[in-house]
Write a structure and sequence with these properties.
The chain has 208 residues and is an alpha/beta fold. It has one domain: Collagenase (Catalytic Domain), CATH 3.40.390. Helices cover 26% and strands 16% of the residues. The protein is built from five helices and eight strands. Strands 1, 2, 3, 4, 5, 6, 7 and 8 form an eight-stranded mixed sheet that branches. Helix 2 links the parallel strand 2 and strand 3. Helix 2 packs across helix 4. The longest helix has 15 residues. Bound molecules: zinc ion (2 copies). One zinc ion (ZN) binds next to helix 4.
Amino acid sequence: MKTLFYIGVFIFLAGFAMKKIKSEKVSPNIDYSVNIMSENTKNEPNYTKVDKTNEISQPKTKIVYLRGLGKYTPSDLYEFKKYVEDSYGYKCVIGDNVPTIREMYTSDGNSLEGSDCILKLYDHNKFTIYITDENLVTGDLQVRGVTYLNHNTIIIESGSYNKDTVLHEIGHTLGLEHCDNPKCLMAINNDEYETNDFCDNCKRKLKK
Ligand SMILES: [Zn+2]
Ligand SMILES: [Zn+2]
């Protein structure tokens, strides 16, 4: 069965979620900044603009923690470590796995809801990629990965496109939105192409 998978930056409920996160955990030493989502993300579910007042960003560190979430395959963490270190030059640290809790799941209990996972797992001081074998969704969409723009927490459902997915999601954490070029890693669904690379336009934005 071929299900349509989206690689999603997850925007809906973002304002709410970020406000809640900020009130729970605030670190005074972090330089907060946030991009406002532009209008070219019409394919996203229940699109809502991120309010400039809900400011959040990843710490200015190049250490990335990789952790299993719920049911996961330990060797996958080493696969992701290689992709992230080879492509971005970050230092990856494999951390303990994290058990899931009821609040991370959809109401039927069958899937992990990406928004709730990020809300529960977010730590302002650590850039962390959580890898799971469980079914990952945002709302009604099956997704391979979720994060926010300029955020520091990524959830990935391990599968056939792990390299593309992790490079794409990290692109979001660096401020890249979805790209219209279907061959670009930041295309919303680039299954047909295995370029493993950003288009020139996205590369330019990454260098800024
Ligand atoms: Zn995306
Ligand atoms: Zn692009």
